[in-house]
Specification:
This protein is of the alpha/beta class. It has 2 domains: 18-150 and 362-457, FAD/NAD(P)-binding domain, CATH 3.50.50.60; 153-358, no CATH class. It has helices at residues 29-40, 55-59, 92-106, 190-201, 225-231, 245-250, 267-272, 295-320, 411-424, and strands at residues 19-25, 45-49, 75-76, 79-80, 110-112, 116-121, 127-131, 134-143, 150-151, 165-168, 182-186, 206-209, 219-220, 223-224, 276-278, 281-285, 288-291, 344-347, 353-358, 362-363, 392-394. The two termini are 32 Å apart. The structure holds flavin-adenine dinucleotide. Flavin-adenine dinucleotide binds at residues 25-31, 48-51, 55-56, 67-69, 115-116, 144-148, 190-191, 396, 406-409.
Length: 458
């Protein structure tokens, strides 16, 4: 433990002064990486985690989940992947263990079971963080509350009868959890494709409504594509080197998997094996699903992106004079029939669909951050995580600075960058005299405005 002693997990009873130079909100890999750097720079701080360390990995991933990124990309600060399969893909529970071991490696000042419900600025330039356990003040604050926060489900879901089970991908665990019958998976990002495969391999009948997400091959010319791209500098390219930074930040991830040692996700191959592929789900009415005429283009575009990545690897190999085995290119194993070029519809009942899994992504909810730093669409404006509010930072945003920012690969570098900023803007005078103000456990945003007076714990 470094810096000043952390608050204990038993809350102070109202007599302890609770102020930290830095408060980090969120105890996932981003918040913990931040804490590692602050610890090693001797900055007193605390990490507030509303649940437990690694809660996203514990609670919102399915049972067969494994990383898509190779283990060697697990490079948390001072704690690279410790196992003997650097080219493998650790499973969900191993990811949790990796994070737990990371915590044990430096014993961060972490308090679990505390939810930050409001963040405001104070007239002296410090911050006040209201939590469900009381209020804490800080000179500087790092928001590390995760890249994938609020499950997004389109409103058309409301038109599905309650006889059909509906869930978001974040709540999917395994095929046995679902009622018998066919399953409609909506969305072909990472989650949708992998969940569709999980169900397919379990022998379930799967309907998959495709989207425009690109795909990438797992292996090419003797190596993991990720290894080639790493050598090519793809993962250290800053967002400031893109002309379309906003678009890059919100683009869907390429689909591929680390399952069973890693392989491509080829939806055409699934179709050959009996999975029913559809275009984009465009509507639901009277028990009928309607799909757009875009299945062909969705598959073609995904393949085209995958092949163009191979083109760039070929060019790199040639330029660098690398002796790598030559590999045949992908040949589509299935084409949609001509009917796919028209809008289509399908009766949920006729198709025997008893479950819909919305793999339609996540949104952010930063409304508890009551500071004028947002861009009008709910996204925090920042430069490499540094906001326009002095002393307020974000970490773990997708493409915060590089491809790896929202992943294991790049979060350590972002944390180091922010730690330097935090040290540079550190206050010399420690603000004292603010006492722990007990709040009520039930309180969540939005709350009343009269929150400055001390309260007693109910
Ligand atoms: C399906 C899926 C697959 C992924 N696969 C990979 C992969 O293969 N490789 C890879 O590198 N990355 C992957 N990622 C991306 C990324 O690594 C994870 O999303 C990771 O969880 C991000 O870590 P984080 O610390 O930024 O956020 P999180 O893990 O989301 O942690 C944020 C923490 O903040 C806490 N919190 C939130 N709000 C509050 C609050 N108000 N007060 C207190 N605490 C709060 C949460 O409880 C949570 O523990 C994947 C993501 C998803 C969704």
């Amino acid at each position: 433990m470094s810096g000043t002693p952390p608050m204990s997990t038993n809350w102070p009873d109202g007599t302890e002064t609770v102020h930290r130079s830095v408060v980090v909100i969120g105890g996932g890999q981003a918040g913990l990486s931040m804490s590692w750097w602050l610890t090693h720079r001797g900055i007193d701080h605390v990490v507030l985690e509303r649940d437990r360390v690694a809660s996203e990995w514990r609670n919102r991933r399915w049972d067969s989940f494994c990383l898509v990124t190779p283990n060697w990309q697990c490079r948390l600060p001072g704690f690279p992947y410790p196992g003997d399969e650097p080219d493998g893909f650790i499973l969900r529970d191993e990811i949790v263990q990796y994070l737990e071991k990371f915590v044990a490696s430096f014993d961060p000042p972490l308090i679990e079971g505390v939810s930050a419900t409001r963040l405001r600025g104070r007239s002296d330039g410090t911050f006040e963080i209201r939590t469900d356990r009381g209020t804490i003040t800080a000179d500087q604050v790092v928001v590390a509350t995760g890249p994938y926060q609020v499950p997004r489900i389109p409103r058309m879901a409301e038109r599905i009868t309650d006889r059909i089970t509906q869930l978001h991908s974040s709540a999917y665990k395994n095929p046995e959890q679902l009622p018998e019958g066919a399953v409609l998976v909506v969305g072909t990002g990472q989650s949708g494709c992998q969940i569709a495969e999980d169900l397919h391999l379990a022998g379930r009948t799967v309907h998959l409504a495709t989207g425009t997400a690109p795909r990438v091959a797992r292996w090419y010319r003797g190596r993991d594509v990720v290894a080639w791209l790493d050598d090519m500098g793809t993962y250290t390219r800053g967002i400031d080197q893109f002309d379309d930074a906003d678009a890059v930040r919100f683009r869907a991830n390429h689909y591929v998997t680390g399952r069973d040692g890693g392989h491509d996700i080829d939806l055409r191959a699934f179709a050959v094996q009996g999975m029913a592929l559809h275009g984009r789900l465009t509507g639901i009415s009277n028990g009928r699903l309607t799909f757009g005429p875009d299945l062909r283009s969705n598959l073609d575009n995904a393949d085209q992106v995958s092949e163009s990545i191979k083109d760039s690897i070929d060019a790199y190999i040639e330029k660098a004079g690398i002796d790598a085995p030559v590999e045949d290119r992908y040949v589509p194993v299935w084409e949609p029939g001509p009917e796919a070029d028209d809008p289509a519809d399908l009766s949920l009942e006729d198709a025997g669909i008893t479950t819909v899994i919305w793999s339609t992504g996540y949104g952010r909810d930063d409304r508890w951050v009551e500071l004028p730093i947002f861009n009008g669409r709910g996204y925090p404006t920042h430069d490499r995580g540094v906001t326009s509010q002095p002393g307020l930072y974000f970490i773990g945003l997708p493409w915060q600075h590089t491809w790896g920012s929202g992943r294991f690969a790049g979060v350590a570098a972002d944390a180091e960058h922010l730690a330097k900023k935090i040290v540079a803007t550190r206050r010399s005078a420690v603000v004292t005299g603010l006492h722990w103000l007990a709040g009520t456990p039930q309180e969540t945003y939005p709350t009343d405005d009269d929150w400055s007076a001390p309260r007693t714990v109910a």
